[in-house]
Amino acid sequence: MKNNKILFCLLALFAFSHVAVAQKKKETVTIKTSAQCDMCKKRIEETVLSVSGVKSAALTVATAELKVVYLTAKTNVDAIRNTISMMGYDADQVKADHAAYHKLPPCCQKPGHQH
Ligand SMILES: [Cu+2]
Question: Residue 115: which residues within 8 A CB-CB, separation 6 or more?
Fold first, then answer.
């Protein structure tokens, strides 16, 4: 009986520490966007960083790839892709929201890019 109690305590402790680890689990993803220039970079990085659970966001203009570090307990890749889409940019297979895309400065729209 006493052994069972100890076992239970150990199990509870294990479960608790497991949850604590899960809440802090970080994931790094690279999302292909349709960013064109430094304005896009600044805009996308700032907006993605404002998503709860996102720890860092860094866009490379030359490749249009955004590297994001986020907490798996707070957000997920799809939510981040949707955020980018709602700004008017493609994010992997998620296409840019049409209305948002047409509100971008002309230089940030894909075909008319003239930087
Ligand atoms: Cu731009």
Answer: 36, 37, 107
